[in-house]
Amino acid sequence: MPRLLLIDDDPALCRALRLSLGQAGYTVIEAENGRQGLKAVAAQPPDLVITDIVMAETDGVEVICAIRKSFRGIPIIAVSGGGRIAADDYLRLAKALGAAEVLMKPIDIEVLLAAVARLLGPAAAQGTPMPRE
Fold this sequence. Notes:
The protein has five helices and five strands, in the order E-H-E-H-E-H-E-H-E-H. By secondary structure, it is α/β, with parallel strands linked by helices. The chain has a single domain, classed as 3-Layer(aba) Sandwich (Rossmann fold). The chain has a five-stranded parallel β-sheet, sandwiched between helices. Helix 1 links the parallel strand 1 and strand 2. The radius of gyration is 13 Å and the shape is globular.
């Protein structure tokens, strides 16, 4: 079963996404900020990372840069609802830094599930192990 790492500082959103992704056949590991997320990646690299951009401790931009530096093969989906600048500006930056997909909050779960399936391949949600690069 593919392992997804969800990094977001909104507990309600994490809970909702964990339930939806779990029902779709994914194992979801959560981190409440980028620092914890990077520790989780280093301890056991996931098959895919979903990260918020605007977070207090180690933001999503730093997460994307660190993962691209040390774990190039892990696909990243960046999400943002905005902050000091508009969400689409954050997401353009995330895409330029190496996020494979970018989604604006509020997240449409069907769009997220489609993006995860695209990045992991069609057999991913059915529990077939994904090859590592």
